[in-house]
Amino acid sequence: MKFLLEVDMGEDAFEGKAAEELGRILRYWGGNLGHYALTPGDGESVHDSAYRKVGRWTVTQ
After folding, report:
1. Cα 22 to Cα 1, 15, 42, 50, 59, distances in angstroms
2. What's the rounded Cα separation, in Å, for the pair 57 and 8?
3. Element (H or E) spanning 54, and its range?
4. Distance between CA atoms of 61 and 52, rounded to whole angstroms?
5. Residues paired with residue 43 on neighbouring β-strands, in sequence order
6. What is residue 60's predicted lDDT score, i.e. its pLDDT?
7. What is the phi/psi pair of residue 52, to 5°?
8. Tens digit of pLDDT for each residue in 38-52?
9. Max CA-CA distance within the chain?
10. DSSP 3-state assignment of 26?
11. pTM of this prediction?
12. CB-based contacts of 4: which residues, under 8 Å, 6+ apart?
């Protein structure tokens, strides 16, 4: 299986705060993954701190 996380940082890499925003996304989803079986087909949308959809994580085979 593979766990895939794709995040679109936009033209300006989260207004020049890419490390801060990506760190927040990783902390949030790292803590939230315990609510999922993590089997192929699982996945959710990923949102930035302004609640804009910026990507998705998925589990594939």
Report:
1. 23, 12, 21, 13, 19
2. 12
3. strand 53-60
4. 28
5. 58
6. 97
7. -90, 135
8. 999 999 999 999 999
9. 35
10. helix
11. 0.86
12. 57, 58, 59, 60
Euclidean distance between CA atoms 17 and 2, whole angstroms:
28
Bridge partners (DSSP) of residue 45 are: 56
Q: What angle do CA 16, 19, 23 make, to 5 degrees?
A: 140
Contacts of 36 by beta carbon, 8 Å cutoff, 6+ apart: 42
The amino acid present at 59, given as its one-letter code, is V
Strand partners, 58: 4, 43
**Domains of the chain by residue range:** 2-60
pLDDT, position 10: 94
Distance CA 28, CA 47 (A): 10
